[in-house]
Fold each of these.
Amino acid sequence: MSIFKKTTKTDAPATPAAKVAAPSATKTVKKENTGAAFRVLLRPLVTEKASTLTPLGKYVFAVAASATKGAIAEAIYQVYGVRPVSVNTVVLRGKYVRSGRNAGKRSDWKKAIITLPAGKTISIYEGV
């Protein structure tokens, strides 16, 4: 008795018609590619200071350091479906820190303050 299984080929070849799937009757909606948008918008900043801006229609995001205001506005539209009225950016320099005798520097980063049109909101505090 062999420890290997014996394989056999089936005698009936597969028909080409069986390989082709029937066309579906429902129309699929193509979703926009938001992969580039998530490379621009890194995360929403959920802080006390940022939450005080929410009633004013302003939202704060950490964005890529190389992101331009136009790219940030387009990413907001792709992800949330709302065109911002204005985009303000701030480049924050990393602080020099020390732990014992080891010294280092935190990374520089960029944040964007997005102003939406009156009456428009986005939900960024869902999972918090």
Note: Helices lie at 16-19, 37-40, 48-53, 69-80.
Amino acid sequence: MAAPDPQLPQQAYHSGPHDELRHLLPYLAGLRAEPVESLGIIPLNGRLGVIAGLQRVAGGHLMHLTVAPREVFAPALSLHAAAIVLAHNHPSGDPEPSLEDRAFTRFMVRAGQLLDVQVLDHIVVTRRAYVSFRRARLM
């Protein structure tokens, strides 16, 4: 099991929808600046504390990603994560989740249930804004 990154926030993810995002956004900074869509996960332990930094699982094209559940959950399983937060960027600058983003999230939630890894949130980031599926009640 990987040792926790000493720069990661010690506060657990479940502290509240605004607090957890404030703590996680600095770790998504590189993702926010990418010119193409990229997807990463933040693995969480059984107490929903962050156990490793952003694990990139896919890079895409200008407007979309293609990724299989095995690619998304491989780092979570290798780190023995109990839960994950999905995160991807929208290079367009519009953080609003697309219909494809919503369908992808539902699919990953179902895949996570089969693997016993809970998908707690999906955060879409841009250079200046973000949308949390959990906070927007899209999950």
Note: The chain has one domain: 13-132.
Amino acid sequence: MHLGRYCYAAALFFRCSVPEEGMPRNMMSFFTQRAGLYITAAVFLFVLVVSAVLMSVAQDAHALRMTMKRVIFEGAKRTEILSIVNNTAKEQVFRLGWRVMRMTEDGSLGYVEEGESMEGLMLAQDMIRYSPRRVVLSPGSSQQIRLMLRRPKDLAKGEYRSHFWIQPEEEAVKFTPDDSAPKPKSPKVKITMLTGMTLPVFIRNGDLSVSVSITDAKVVSDAGRTKVAMTLNREGGRSTYGSMQFYCAGSDEMLHEVKGIAVYTEVTKRRVAFKVPSPEKGGVAACSQVRIKYVAEGNDSQFKGAVMAEAVTGG
């Protein structure tokens, strides 16, 4: 991205905005006008830069695809294979590794940096070997990644989790300015966004169980949009993962489904809110109440696709 061109455009904006008749007699008025112009141009430049970066992120977000969303080692399972696919039109180099991430009660995930507290977390990464560690993929090609569990004999009962991280590697490229472009005095900057993907990897050791309940379920208005808000409460030795399903109370016709909702072991509750599309007539408000179901995936060893928790708004 040629940041210098935007600076040059902003400079032209300054020049064109100065009155042709010269400096006003009221010096304070003059400097106030100039300050306003500088602020306006600065905001204009900032919006251009942010827009360019967001467009770059949107394009890179589809550069990598993984065939799995999560990996669980439990029972006698010792190996797993996932595939990564290069969706770009050029050769890509990917690096693989581990990240430690913590969930908060609002459902967000943040990186735990080295030296930060690990309270509530038990890590899986030291018990799992993977290969290869670096992958070169031609356009459209794929590569299998093999994960192998080495479970210690004296491993304490519990659920262990780390996040497997795959990120494209890009070598430094010499930036050559466009000689045909105007010659601004400001430096030119090239911004490159490298985006990757992570997936959680679990090791469940021992007979683990979990129970879930839904409380504080209600229909709320958020910025003009109707949402269903609630708190997911978790008790037990393992995390949960499943889909939120919404129905008008008394009806079996599902209004909406949101997949991939997890509550990890470092939190006992997660507060969530989802926009639920309106029924064909009358909107969500036409439902006297909304029934909510938190449904496990079919491969869940405890629930096997069953409803983990259920509630009704206002109930």
Note: Helices lie at 3-17, 27-60.
